[in-house]
Amino acid sequence: MSKIISPCVGICKYKLQGHCSGCGMKKGQKKAFKKIKTSTERRAFLLALISCQKELDVHDNWARSYHRKCAKRGKQLPLKLKI
Q1: For the segment 57-70, what is each residue's pLDDT rounded down to a tens digit?
Q2: Which among 9, 5, 6, 31 has a CA at the least distance from the CA of 20?
Q3: Looking at residue 19, what DSSP letter applies?
Q4: H helices present in the chain, as ranges
Q5: What's phi and psi for 16, nearest 5 deg?
Q6: 15 exposed, middle or buried (CB, 10 Å; 0-12, 13-18, 19+)?
Q7: Which of 47, 54, 55 is nearest to 7 (CA)?
Q8: Could you give the CA distance from residue 42 to residue 83 in angstroms, rounded to a whole number?
Q9: pLDDT digits (tens, 9 = 90+) for 5-19
Q10: Whole-model pTM?
Q11: b/e sequence 31-55, b meaning 16+ C-beta within 10 Å
Q12: How far is CA 43 from CA 16, 48, 61, in A?
């Protein structure tokens, strides 16, 4: 399986209680994701992030942006996302 790309979608504005308004991650989480080596751990990270995104109400916009990012890079989505 190919490497799962970062959930960051390039907005990087931390206006939601320290969370990015694009992907829902905090700055520390973005750094931590880069250090995760295995696809299994990255997939688990994404699942936890999606839960957080839904609480912050950024998931729908993020899912569309992440889908475009994956398609642009020729990668499959690591999870089934409702778009």
Answers
A1: 999 999 999 999 99
A2: 9
A3: B
A4: 27-35, 39-56, 59-72
A5: -110, 75
A6: exposed
A7: 47
A8: 20
A9: 999 999 999 999 999
A10: 0.88
A11: eebeeeeeeeebeebbeebbebbee
A12: 23, 9, 19
Contact 75, 2 (CB under 8 A): yes
Q: What tokens appear for 68 in the block?
A: 């475009």
Question: Cα separations (Å) of 8 from 27, 39, 70?
Answer: 11, 16, 11
Q: 25: buried, middle or exposed (CB in 10 Å: 19+, 13-18, 0-12)?
A: buried
- Count Cβ atoms below 10 Å from residue 59 Cβ, excluding itself: 20
Question: How far apart, in whole angstroms, are the C-alpha atoms of residue 43 and residue 57?
Answer: 20
| CB contact at 8 A, 23 and 5 | no
**Cα dihedral angle (44, 48, 49, 51), rounded to 10 degrees?**
140
**Tell me, what amino acid is at 81?**
L
